[in-house]
Design brief:
By secondary structure, the protein is an all-alpha fold. Helices cover 64% and strands 1% of the residues. It has 16 helices and two strands. The chain has a two-stranded antiparallel sheet with strand order 1-2. Helix 3 packs across helix 8 and helix 4 packs antiparallel against helix 13. The protein starts with a helix and ends in a 17-residue tail after the last helix.
């Protein structure tokens, strides 16, 4: 694959996100998988926070864009059966970790490139979690190899997103829509959907994954740049994302360097660190960050689909149980949830490890 595609991937998500926040999405939240899942769960009545209810077109676009391109390129491959319930559980806690930090890894980059210095602690936590996860993977962790599945199973997530698109357009009375709060801040629907479709297609083509890109550095070190074209591509996308998002942030007047008073942030730095550490840890265990799970589910991966369903459940419960971080800080219930999630991931890692086995074959896909 030509390296230009990876540059284009980073440019699309960086410029696209800043364009969306410029035209109406919340500040520093042009794109955020966890925030938008909370909004979507609220719109469907899965929680009652009236400030976070809107069927986000961006999420729909991610999945449908990736789905259509995977069909066109004949890369829609129905597969699954690799510990789906564990993936559901980890997907649940991925979103809990994101809500503690107030943002997924994509939003973490957007917060950094908009000058939010507090987001640095999230980056450090994410890297720490990736390292811990890799320690388990390199010492025999495995969830089992996926096997071919009926095509109908793999169509559920794309069809669900198509259904949400219909609801978004016809706006039935049972779908909620915030009149205030972050759910009420939204860019024009067609613009959001269009950018989502483009990013979803490019992410399918380049296999974009923030945690996957960082993980390759730990796995390969200097050889990452010399011997792994695909991995180098992921790093190019990440670098391009940072550069284009920073430039777009400055050009659109959204760059505001500082530590205090940043949008979607608080000063609970320790819990933000642990929240993103849980995201990095869990993402390695199920091979992909929250956005990667969405894209993989669109191209036939039922296991990623199970993780996506877990993510939706986590988004709903984060609001129903009062787990999510707020500008006032991290609630006690959220602190308990982070510690519980980390403990569960350690237990899952220990129980699914075969000593002396090395890196399981399913985790070697795409590494070389």
């Amino acid at each position: 694959m030509h390296k230009g595609w990876f540059v284009l991937m980073g440019a699309a998500i960086g410029v696209g996100a800043l364009t969306l926040s410029y035209y109406g999405n919340p500040a520093n939240t042009g794109l955020c998988v966890s925030c938008f899942m909370e909004n979507t769960a609220g719109a469907l009545g899965l929680h009652d926070n009236i400030r976070m209810q809107y069927l986000r077109p961006e999420l729909i676009g991610f999945v449908l864009g990736a789905f259509m391109l995977s069909l066109y390129r004949k890369e829609f491959v129905p597969s699954g059966g690799s510990s789906p319930l564990i993936r559901f559980l980890i997907g649940f806690f991925l979103i809990i970790g994101c809500t503690i930090f107030i943002g997924c890894p994509v939003k973490m980059v957007l917060r950094l490139t908009s000058g939010d210095l507090g987001a640095l602690i999230g980056l450090v936590g994410l890297i720490a979690g990736i390292y811990i996860g890799l320690e388990f993977v390199e010492n025999g962790f495995q969830l089992g190899e996926p096997s071919p599945q009926p095509r109908s199973n793999s169509l559920i997530i794309p069809l669900f997103m198509a259904f949400l698109l219909v609801l978004l357009i016809i706006e039935p009375s049972f779908v909620y829509k915030s009149a205030k709060g972050s759910g009420a801040l939204r860019a024009p629907m067609l613009l959001s959907l269009g950018i989502g479709l483009v990013i979803g297609g490019l992410a399918q083509y380049t296999q974009f994954c923030i945690t996957g890109g960082i993980a390759r550095i730990f796995l390969w070190g200097p050889r990452e740049v010399l011997n792994c074209p695909r991995s180098t591509g992921l790093l190019i996308s990440l670098g391009s994302f940072f550069v284009f998002a920073t430039v777009a942030s400055i050009l659109t007047g959204q760059f505001n360097p500082g530590l205090q008073g940043q949008p979607s942030s608080n000063d609970s730095y320790g819990w933000a660190f642990l929240g993103m550490m849980m995201v990095g840890f869990g993402s390695i265990l199920i091979r992909g960050c929250p956005m990667r799970q969405l894209i993989a589910s669109a191209q036939g991966d039922n296991d990623a689909g199970a993780a996506v369903m877990g993510m939706f459940a986590g988004a709903a419960m984060a609001q129903n149980w009062g787990l999510a971080g707020t500008p006032a800080g991290t609630p006690v219930a959220g602190q308990v949830a982070v510690l519980t999630g980390l403990l569960l991931m350690i237990v899952i890692g220990m129980m699914n490890r075969r000593r002396g086995y090395g890196i399981a074959r399913e985790y070697q896909v795409g590494l070389d």
